Amino acid sequence: MTKTIYTQDQIDQAKSISLIDYCNYRGIDISGSENNPHLIEMDSLVLFPDNTERQWHRYSTQEGGDAIAFVQYMEDKSFSEAMEVLLDPSFEHENKVTKKPIKKEPFSYKNYEVKAFDKAKDYLVNKRKIDPEIVDTLQNKGYIAQDQRNNIVFKWRNQLTNELCGANIQGTYQTKGRSFKRIQRNSTQGYGFNLLNGDPEEIYFFESSIDLLSYCTMNKGNLDNKWFVSMEGLKNVVAQTIFDYEAYKKERNLPIKAPKVHICTDTDQAGREFYDRHFEMFPYMHYDPPSVGKDWNDELVAKTEEYERSDESHQAFFVGEDKEFDLPIYIHEEELEIE
What we know:
This protein has 2 domains: 8-86, Alpha-Beta Complex (DNA Primase, Chain A), CATH 3.90.580; 113-317, no CATH class. The protein is 31% helix and 20% strand. It has helices spanning 8-15, 19-26, 67-75, 79-86, 118-127, 132-140, 209-218, 238-251, 269-278, 296-309, 314-317; strands at 30-32, 37-39, 45-47, 56-58, 63-65, 113-114, 144-147, 152-158, 163-175, 178-183, 194-197, 202-206, 226-230, 260-264, 285-287. The strands form 4 sheets. The protein has a 5-stranded antiparallel β-sheet with strand order 6-7-8-9-10. Strands 11-13-12-14-15 form a 5-stranded mixed β-sheet. The protein has a 3-stranded antiparallel β-sheet with strand order 3-4-5, covered by helices on one side. Strand 1 and strand 2 (37-39) form a beta hairpin. The chain starts with 7 loop residues before the first helix and ends in a 22-residue tail after the last helix. One of its GO terms (molecular function) is DNA binding. Residues 123-193 form the DUF3991 domain.
């Protein structure tokens, strides 16, 4: 295959493309101020529209650069592949700074699901050590699915209306040390993948869907009357969930009192600061990080591998007897055909 040689003018043109325009074109949601918007799916990744050489920076990893580097990072492409994307004639852009972030439209679920679930289940059960009964229950009730590229789709539900309000995608394999992750376009801010089991008295917040399922696996017999919520990063979905909690209780004529809230973020500095900055002053909110590793999946994998090396019974590892989730039935949407 002949390697394309790009002129300096073409490289400069690609570098100067507005990342706000590019994000709009590729369906990457952004939010925040006009001068420094951030990605919804990675709120530590900030855009700098006025700086051609340094159009983006991800503070959590100290990575950044121009538009070419952004496409390489987000799309896992080589330099030549990134150039091809940015110079594609179908990508219409004004080649200048766009000052205002994209106006969000209502969420519309992009249904690229397939009937097969083998790749998703293999990843969750064998790679991430999630309990297979939990995986089967959530798949049967439409909370998780597999898409045409063998990714896992975690579907977000507004528990007040029982409507889908967003979705996040998790790859089942790694490329260059990173798994593909994406939040569907226009997913509702203030929400994330969440499971409500009974009438909630306690609410648990996690950084990711995988962490949420890991915690549920380790506490499988102790899930009644609890609400498990993934923040998909360190986004403050806590306030919206508390508001929905109060509305949920009011609709059902249940007594409203402050729920016991568990902030189950990672053990790193960002996870601790997230709790200290926003919630430490509230007596009903507690910082509950994992006791092993950085996140809840680290702890689950470590304990599962330890269990598999021992002769202890399955019941000695998991707390309590098996129980199924009591979740609303998901009404399957018509599958869209894509080329």
